[in-house]
Design a protein that fits this description.
It comes from Arachis hypogaea (Peanut). This is SWIM-type domain-containing protein. By secondary structure, this protein is an alpha+beta fold. It is 27% helix and 9% strand. The protein has 7 helices and 4 strands; from the N terminus they run H-H-H-H-E-E-E-E-H-H-H. The protein starts with a helix and ends in a 59-residue tail after the last helix.
Length: 198
């Protein structure tokens, strides 16, 4: 600072008015940062928002946001990034999302993942137990006893149980598959008016 004061006293006074955490390198935070202005992540982000960038600032910000807003009691409101007006309510406590993918599959959907990542929770805690290794091991922990072939079965005093007698249906066998119930859609499109195909 003494060197700066020798060069320009006005610059020294200006810097002394600003907290050092904003301009002095030794006061900067130690978390990961990158001083490269263009990298792959920026390129991907720019390609996603290319349509929104041509809009006015408010419309652009509405189009590009992907935000999970905490609503209290482990509930979040998640908005879509792709310009839609869709909003989803995620309840992490009950493992529910209004898109219903979370409840149906037991695996967190994209909306739930946004909230889980924002809160720095462990994703494994939100996956259904049926997908976990412990459940798989528990299902197959019992012995599946092998069975001998019919030639080694114990003979009983009862008659052998046989399958029912096969009767060949009358008439020609049907080889075509059954037609679908919905109406058939014409594969060839209708020609435009005034054009005739030969």
């Amino acid at each position: 600072m003494a060197e700066i004061q020798k060069v320009d006293n006005g610059a020294y006074n200006h810097l002394m008015e600003i907290p050092t955490k904003y301009w002095c390198r030794h006061k900067f935070g130690t978390w990961s940062k990158c001083d490269t202005l263009v990298n792959n992540m920026c390129e991907v982000f720019n390609s996603v928002i290319v349509d929104a960038r041509e809009k006015p600032i408010v419309s652009m910000l509405e189009d590009i946001r992907w935000v999970s807003i905490y609503a209290g009691r482990d509930k979040y409101e998640v908005t879509s990034i792709h310009g839609g007006k869709e909003k989803f309510v995620v309840d992490l406590k009950n493992h529910e999302c209004s898109c219903r993918k979370f409840q149906l599959s037991g695996i967190p959907c994209a909306h739930a993942m946004t909230c889980i990542r924002k809160m720095c929770f462990n994703v494994d805690n939100f996956v259904a137990n049926c997908y976990k290794k412990e459940t798989y091991s528990e299902c197959y922990q019992h012995v599946v006893y092998p069975v001998n072939g019919p030639n080694l079965w114990v003979k009983t005093q009862f008659d052998d149980v046989l399958p029912p007698v096969y009767r060949k249906p009358i008439g020609r066998p049907k080889l075509k598959r059954m037609a679908k119930t919905h109406p058939k859609v014409n594969a060839t499109p209708e020609p435009p008016p005034g054009i005739f195909y030969r």
